[in-house]
Amino acid sequence: NRFAAEHSQFYPTFNPDMLVENLAEFGLTGNERFRSLSLGNKRKSLIAYALALGTEILLLDEPANGLDIGSKQILRRMIARSVGENRTLIVSTHIVSDLEALYDGVMMLRRSNLVLSMPTAEIQSRLSFVCGPVPPVNALYYAQGAGIFHSIIPCTDAEETAIDFDLLYMAMQSNAADSILELLKTERYDQQ
Predict the structure, then answer these.
(1) Which residue from 23, 39, 97, 130 has the fewest beta carbons nearer than 10 Å?
(2) Residue 6: is it exposed, middle or buried by C-beta count within 10 angstroms (0-12/13-18/19+)?
(3) Which residues of 23-39 are buried (b: 16+ CB within 10 A; e: fewer)?
(4) Element of type H or E holding 143
(5) What is the distance in angstroms between the CA of the first residue and the CA of the last residue of the chain?
(6) What does each C-alpha distance from 178 to 125, 151, 168, 172 come to in angstroms?
(7) Does 182 score more than 50 pLDDT?
(8) pLDDT-above-70 percentage for the chain
(9) Distance (Å, rounded) from C-alpha 147 to C-alpha 133?
(10) How many whole angstroms separate alpha carbon 103 and alpha carbon 172?
């Protein structure tokens, strides 16, 4: 609490009630000595504080690392409660599945260059993520796992699929990246 009292004065949008609520959800009071906390609880207290700052833009680097399954669920609730029209949260992560239900956009970097920045709805309108015993003939990228092929294909149906963020990430690291980016950057692809 002493740290928050001294540091938060630089953030006029800081919400002390949100900090208390966030800490309580993680099972913390704010009266614990930071140095004596476990690594996981240190991480929880820092996340609780960062979300309570109320900044217009907040960048979190691997926020779910070191958290157990229950704490990750709490983190998802906190993030959902903390964002809105006037607040953007950018999550940098290699484990996209931890928070994927919250993503409304994707940014991907390759060799320090921004190669993709797009709302998830637009990605879903251009790409489909399908599974089957064999990869489709029109697969832009596929990977085999546990006897099933996970594939990315052009979206030609009215029905959109959920984004397989792990598959998309792997595809963007492959030789298929340029063709996928080209498809994403063009208007809706319809097969004639």
Answers:
(1) 39
(2) exposed
(3) bebbebebeeeeeeeee
(4) strand 141-145
(5) 62
(6) 18, 16, 12, 8
(7) yes
(8) 95
(9) 7
(10) 18
Q: Is the dihedral of CA 65, 141, 90, 124 positive or negative?
A: negative
87-90-95-99 Cα dihedral, nearest 10 degrees: 10
Tokens linked to 63: 């926020």
Average pLDDT, the chain: 88
pLDDT of the residue at 23? 96
Encoding tokens for residue 154?
């052009």
pLDDT in tens, 75-126: 999 999 888 888 888 988 888 788 888 888 898 888 888 988 999 999 999 9
Taking the CA atoms of the chain, what radius of gyration do you get in angstroms? 20
> Mapping DSSP to helix (H, G, I), strand (E, B) and coil, where does residue 186 land?
coil
- pLDDT score recorded for residue 192: 39
DSSP per residue over 91-129, as a string? EE-S-GGGTGGG-SEEEEEETTEEEEEEEHHHHHHHEEE
128 beta partners: 153
